[in-house]
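Here is one chain, start to finish.
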Amino acid sequence: MSGYIDMNLIPELSIGVVGHVDHGKTTLVQALTGQWTARHSEELKRSMTIKLGYADGYLVKCENLESPQAYRTDLQCPEGSKPEIVKAVSYVDAPGHEILMATMLSGASLMDAAILVIAANEPCPQPQTREHLMALDIMKIEQLVVVQNKVDVVDKEQAKKNYAQIIDFLSTTRFSKAPVIPISALHKLNIDLLVMSMLKMFKTPERDLSKPAYMLIARSFDINLPGTPPNKLVGGVIGGGLIKGEIRVGDEIEIKPGARVIEKGSTKFIPLVTKVTSIRYGMRESDKAIPGGLVALGTSLDPAITKADSLAGCVAGHNVPDPVNYLRIEYKLFERAVGSVSQEIVEPIKPREELLITVGTTVRVGIATKVMKDELEVVLREPVVIIPKISAALSRRIKGRWRLIGWGRIKM
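Its structure:
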């Protein structure tokens, strides 16, 4: 219904904001939502995204304006009327620095679509531009819009040259038809055109609401402020996205592998069972969580268990499969390592080689115990929960850095 605004709308789409470090991803999320996603103290100190950032927003249309000016993100049209909310969305702000690639990959598992941010004042492609686009390919992200950011800091000729480089780069990938939108996130230039493009390109996937529910946990928190009296303490919070089913307030859920415990020098994991006490999408409360947006679940857990992202990488839900330390992966290697300037040729995986395996929001180190042409067996140092139709990204250490070298399907 035109002009109708339901402030309790649950986000229906998770949009990743990805790209090379310092190309303006966090500034773009702020332009789209009014929220600065870099909230961690180390992020503020270093002026870079380290953890996955989240923000909710709206893609709206003002009926009395011409395109593209009719497309906006705020809930007020220039003449004072209320716009039509076309989509409520969540944004995942992924870190761009090379040493944080595993964090970006875990964030990609929560994305339905993505915005690739490329700065106009640097040659294209930069290493993490290439790496992030490859990560989206691995995670089967089909919907992409590219923004050429920072057009305000270059002259017209440099912007056109950079734009041509972007088009040439995309032509070598399966995203060759993705639109490229020149913008200035800092000055909110062409944000209306970007919103119009997102609404045209990004379709809401079909959601599986059947039981059991699975939620990939990307963050976990203790939200109690220092000095909070014991009688006012609230339980720990887990954040992430559902990929199947629905969870309601009052549900009892499992969390696996669970809490990490160190005993006599060895690490073990204790599965958790807890009650969902609240559900929030940003500042909005809901009685249920479904696939599509980024959600925070309040629980009855001791907040000491959830503080400092200690449950990140776990799976929450109903009847969560038991974690395993052994994986069989049908894999494919890239021709060249992704993310490094020199793009080293990817040599075959060797038995006993150490690999970094990203599964959903879980990042684990493992040892290749058996290597065949297209199948790999890996023993992990710490367990992981495997749910149906989930992919694995493979990285190896090259010149002191974990580099993306391939991907695979985990055999159940």
